[in-house]
Design brief:
Elements lengths: L5 E12 L2 H7 L1 H21 L3 E6 L2 E6 L2 H15 L6 E13 L2 E3 L1 H12 L5 E4 H7 L7 E7 L8 E6 L9 H8 L6 E4 L3 E2 L7 H15 L6 E2 L2 H4 L9 H8 L3 E10 L2 E10 L5 E11 L3 H16 L5 H7 L7 H14 L4 H17 L4 H16 L5 H19 L3 H13 L4 H14 L4 H13 L3 H14 L4 H13 L3 H14 L4 H13 L3 H14 L3 H29 L8 H11 L2 H13 L21 H9 L9
Parallel strand pairs: 4-6, 9-11, 9-12, 10-12
Antiparallel strand pairs: 1-3, 1-4, 2-3, 4-5, 6-8, 7-8, 12-13, 13-14
């Protein structure tokens, strides 16, 4: 008697061990031990998530789940459990109708899951759009859309996603192009320029030209341009071009040499395509007088666009055609100011202020110097080097002067948006300014990163995470941009994701203040107070605040975590070290210590001086304990933040 076939909706998961056959040939006994360990992990997690092992196929497993969410959680946890094994696992998942015949399953979903597994990154999980669409609103896993991929024996391309949590491998831009079959140059990195000058002190000038060219290219919407911070790591590198391109996730690299002879400049450029192989597309030399440097940038950008066949909007085309002559001494002085500005110390910001002021004296119509002056004044107040009330008139004056001279420019709108959000607390105006920043320069990393923070402040957290991820793609090795992403993940309550990002930053940059301050909040929010205490202590010691660290340690010995933080708060109020400690800092310490009345006292003081951190009042999880305080709700009302609080 023929058995009837059963049809049902199910999620199918395929897994296998990468390089299993080769491993068996090298060490059969050791490989069998790994296989047994892998199977144990699989079975434990499949049972945990109510799945069913259909069959084992050598090193692989085929499993069925009633829920695509449970299948995805299972795949994630298998990879997290297996990441310390001496092998890597690939996993693919699809969701749809299957046919069950006895103890086996058939159907298009089975085939798709199998094919997705075969192309997944080692240690990664690839899922179809059917799975992604079904679970997107119900889980906190981060995903990346890889695009439409043609799979063997599957009639139509499958829109594919990968798990993109920090612990998982990211599919490189190069590999995405290989999977989707695209051969178009859509992204580029401009490597640090080599100086042919015998004068080492001219490096600031070469760096300035490098930065300026990136800025010009970045205004093209159809081209993803890696920010300068991430390309600088390849100065004097011996790494192969294809390896650099893969690390940065770009389709092409631009490298150049610069020779300056007084007011004459020569740039020799070559463009290298890196989609599959290293292919030298084009090379050219440009000779100009320094006063015509912007015309040279425009010509170079036009040649690159022509070579890669990038698409331009009418606005972009008009912008590229615009340039002006500079006064050489003013431009050189401006570049020296940029060199000092990037160092962010009090002394370097003071020096940058002098150089930018001198540049304006030499050329009162040079708009970039006014934009830079606005940025330096705002930076000086954000770092606590000058009083905010003294700095803001300079910020506004220079910002609007820049706009009046140059018209719309991304940098001016970026500072404008920053002022609207963190100083004026005008959310709609800030939104419009940041949107205009990105419209003018879609590759403006800072613009996207801080726009993500505005989205978080206004409780649009999914959009904030997405925008922050774009900023990471544009500047993948920038510790500040990554730290700002960690903050977003913390506000979105994706604590483990934030922890992984921040620990990775501190591994390479042991004294990064934003990473430290965010990580200690993450541990507080997780209830892991001992780890939070250690992060407080390490951050104080790294900043040279030894007496704060001593107060923290003394309080911890007397009464644990909460006593430690209240002790530091009292120390900062007494201020025996003579440093300036903001009311916001003290308020957050009392908040974590659970002393609500004192926390509210200092939050009100922070409101009175318009502390730039106050916009986070409604979204930062550390304030959850204060949200039922009438005075806290009053502060939210005064700042027009209540409208964004979800009840």
């Amino acid at each position: 008697m023929q058995k009837s076939l059963q049809k049902k909706l199910a999620a199918i998961m395929f897994t296998d061990i990468v390089g299993y056959t080769t491993m068996m040939g090298q060490d059969e006994g050791k490989t069998l031990q790994l296989l047994r360990k892998s199977r144990a992990i699989h079975i434990e997690q499949i049972e945990k998530y109510n799945g069913r092992v259909i069959k084992e196929m050598g090193d692989g497993i085929l499993a069925q789940f009633n829920s695509p969410l449970e299948a995805t959680f299972c795949a994630r946890d298998i990879q997290l459990e297996a990441r310390f094994m001496l092998c890597k696992i690939r996993i693919g998942i699809d969701f749809g109708e299957i046919t069950i015949d006895n103890h086996d399953v058939f159907g298009n979903g089975v085939n798709i899951a199998s094919r997705l597994q075969s192309i997944a990154d080692p240690g990664g999980v690839f899922i179809s759009s059917k799975v992604h669409d079904a679970i997107e609103k119900d889980c906190d896993i981060l995903f990346e859309n890889l695009g439409e991929i043609s799979l063997k024996n599957v009639s139509s391309p499958v829109n594919t996603y990968s798990i993109a949590d920090p612990e998982f491998p990211r599919t490189s831009r190069q590999r995405k192009k290989e999977l989707t079959g695209s051969d178009i140059i859509e992204s580029i990195a401009v490597l640090p320029f080599h100086s042919l000058s015998a004068e080492p002190e001219q490096q600031f000038f070469v760096d300035g030209i490098h930065d300026a060219l990136i800025t010009e290219l970045a205004q093209i919407n159809s081209l993803r341009v890696i920010s300068r911070t991430s390309t600088l790591r390849y100065r004097n590198t011996t790494a192969a071009m294809l390896d650099i391109a893969r690390e940065l996730g770009v389709d092409a690299l631009l490298e150049a040499t610069v020779l300056r002879d007084q007011d004459q400049i020569r740039i020799q450029v070559q463009l290298i395509k890196t989609i599959r192989t290293e292919e030298h597309l084009w090379a050219k030399s440009y000779d100009r007088e320094l006063r015509n440097v912007f015309a040279m940038y425009n010509e170079l950008v036009k040649d690159i666009i022509r070579e890669i066949d990038a698409k331009l909007t009418r606005y972009e085309s008009d912008q590229i055609d615009q340039f002006y002559e500079v006064i050489p001494e003013a431009y050189e002085t401006y570049l020296m100011g940029v060199h000092h500005w990037e160092q962010l110390s009090k002394e370097s910001l003071d020096s940058a202020l002098e150089y930018f002021s001198e540049s304006i004296q030499l050329d009162p119509n040079f708009a970039p110097a006014y934009t830079a002056l606005a940025g330096v004044w705002l930076g000086r107040t954000q770092m606590g080097y000058v009083n905010q009330s003294n700095a803001l008139p300079h910020v506004y004056k220079n910002m609007y002067k820049s706009i009046s001279l140059e018209g719309e420019n991304a940098e001016s709108y970026f500072w404008k948006g920053s002022l609207h959000v963190w100083i004026d607390w005008e959310w709609d105006k800030g939104y419009k300014a940041f949107k205009r920043t990105i419209e003018i320069n879609p590759n403006n990393t800072k613009g996207r990163a801080y726009f993500a923070h505005l989205l978080a402040i206004t409780n649009r957290l999914e959009e904030a995470v997405s925008e922050a991820e774009i900023s990471i793609q544009l500047d993948p090795f920038n510790e500040l941009i990554r730290s700002l992403y960690g903050m977003i993940l913390n506000y979105a309550r994706k604590y483990r994701n934030a922890e992984a990002i921040l620990l990775d930053i501190l591994k390479d940059k042991k004294n990064h203040p934003v990473a430290y301050s965010t990580l200690r909040s993450v541990y507080f929010n997780l209830g892991e107070y001992e780890k939070s205490y250690e992060m407080f202590k390490r951050s104080y010691l790294e900043k040279g605040e030894t007496r704060s660290a001593e107060a923290l340690e003394k309080g911890y010995k007397e009464g644990g975590y909460r006593k430690a933080l209240s002790s530091v708060a009292e120390f900062k109020i007494d201020n025996p070290d003579g440093n300036y400690h903001t009311p916001w800092q003290i308020a957050t310490l009392y908040t974590r210590a659970g002393i609500r009345d004192k926390a509210m006292t200092f939050l009100k003081k922070a409101y009175e001086i318009r502390d730039p951190n106050m916009p986070y009042l409604g979204v930062d999880p550390i304030f959850d304990a204060l949200k039922d305080e009438p005075e806290f709700r009053t502060l939210l009302d005064k700042m027009n933040l209540t409208q964004f609080i979800k009840t």
